[in-house]
Amino acid sequence: MQVTVEEIGTCKVALTIEIEHEAYKEAVAKATDQLLKSISVPGFRKGRAPRQLALRYVSEDAIHKRVVANVVPDALEAALAETGLDAYDVADLGEPQFPEDDEPFRFRTVITTQPKVELAQYKGLRYELPIVEVDDAAVDRELQLILEEYRRLEDTGRRAQKGDWVTLRAVDRRAAVPERIGIADPDADSVARNLVGLSPGDTVELEFPGPSNPAPESYQVVAVQAWTLPELTDEFVSQKLGVESVEKLREEVRGRLEDRAKALWKSEAQSLVIEDVLRRSTVLYPEEMLDRMAASRTSSSIRRIEEDGLTLADYLASREMTLRDFQEEARRAAASDLEFVLVLRAIAEAEGLNARKEDSAEGRNTTADLYDIVGEFLLANNEVVPVGASQNQQAERQQEQSTENQAEPETA
Predict the structure, then answer these.
(1) What are the sequence ranges of the domains in the chain?
(2) Which of 28, 132, 312, 331 shows the greatest Cβ crowding within 10 Å of its Cβ?
(3) DSSP letter string, 159-170
(4) Which value, in Å, is the radius of gyration of the alpha carbons in the chain?
């Protein structure tokens, strides 16, 4: 067998395979025998007719098809082994050339090959990355959030102001909704505006929106309440939180915030190194692989849109984009995801970091697992130096990370 390799594109090659004439003759004989066993000749049981008679019922086209079915798969497998090509898919199988006289049997096939990644340097590098320093203001904000968990509504003893909760009871007992609660707000709708300045016992005409409220109704103010927070005292933190003192609570909160800042910094450090290596590496892959990922991503996006109660047309209109824009956006995102996953796999394979069976029954083979194990490796083999950052920078980075984490890359 003779194999000729021609590169015709990125991760795409054409193979011309020639089978010696003697081997081809043997393949024809084998194909003919197979067909004769299944041929039906009038007056004879299947496969029992004399050979010369049965041959009249076997066409050359049928023999050629059986030869292709018998020869091509094995010949292609042998050609790949001989050339060392790692096939991704068979893109096209051309028409075989059946020989005349003593010529070889030839066929040409186009295959796509597995992606190729030329990794940039990914060990022994140095980076600087801001880390948030937890200050007293951050601790105070966290304590405020804790107190808000124990807030309660209490009577104000005054007229309703912005943000107060106003409890109303319909004067007419036949009202569709006999009791309501509204929030006073001079900048909101008419109901909220009309609640401002009311006291318990006052009567007010209100028109609530909705089909059950065809006309304004009279309501009496039952209560005006506002949220109040408990005082942060040693007694409060001991009874409600099981902490001996406010000072001890501040220490615990500071410790949690510092742990959170370190975890965020570590996650960002992993992203920093991985994205840098990805940016400097060369990644080649067949278009067919990207086609499949883009189609999968497009289908997933449409499914999520419909789960949110929208049609694709409504979604496109809200974003002022065409269907083609939507598909191209999905393709760009799929290309980014594909390159990301391929670089992770390349590093994992180069360092022997793949599938640790002791970690799970199936081993580490998901994108999230690859990200974790490769990220840990890169942090251990590069120097990432923490430098100071402001609280505003922390908030910005947390928002960016939240946005990026909304969609995890698909596995190729």
Answers:
(1) 2-113, 152-228, 244-404
(2) 132
(3) ---TT-EEEEEE
(4) 37
Structure letter (DSSP) for residue 114: -
Q: Is the Cβ–Cβ distance between 203 and 171 less than 8 Å?
A: yes
Q: Are 365 and 316 within 8 A, CB to CB?
A: no
131, amino acid identity: I
* pTM, to two decimals: 0.70
CATH of domain 152-228: 3.10.50.30
Spatial CB neighbours of 403, under 8 Å, sequence gap ≥ 6: none
Asked if 109 and 17 touch (Cβ cutoff 8 Å), the reply is: yes
Q: Which pairing describes strands 179-183 and 217-228: parallel, antiparallel, or unpaired?
A: unpaired
Cα 402 to its chain centre, rounded Å, is 14
Angstrom distances, CA of residue 116 to CA of 9, 83, 113, 389, 390? 13, 16, 9, 39, 41
Look at strands 282-284 and 116-118 and give their pairing. Answer: antiparallel
Which helix H or strand E contains 233, and what residues bound it?
none
CA distance 364 to 356: 6
Long-range contacts (CB closer than 8 Å, 24 or more residues apart) made by 361-366: 366/411
* Domain 152-228 identical in fold to domain 244-404: no
Specify the 3-state DSSP secondary structure of 194: helix
Domain 244-404 has CATH 1.10.3120: yes
For residues 370 and 362, give the distance between their C-alpha atoms in angstroms, rounded to a whole number. 13
CA distance 100 to 172: 103
Cβ atoms of 286 and 86 within 8 Å: the answer is no
Mean pLDDT of the chain: 88
User: Is pLDDT above 50 for 359?
Assistant: no
CATH for 2-113 (3.10.560.10, 3.50.50.60, 3.30.70.1050, 3.40.228.10): 3.30.70.1050
- Express each pLDDT in 174-202 by its tens digit: 665 678 889 999 999 889 999 999 999 99
Q: Is 131 helix (H, G, I), strand (E, B) or coil?
A: strand
| Cβ neighbours of 164 (radius 10 Å) | 22
407: confidence class by pLDDT, cuts 50, 70, 90: very low
Rama region for 209: left / alpha / beta (φ>0; ψ in -120 to 50; rest):
beta
How far apart are the C-alpha atoms of 330 and 325, rounded to whole Å? Answer: 9
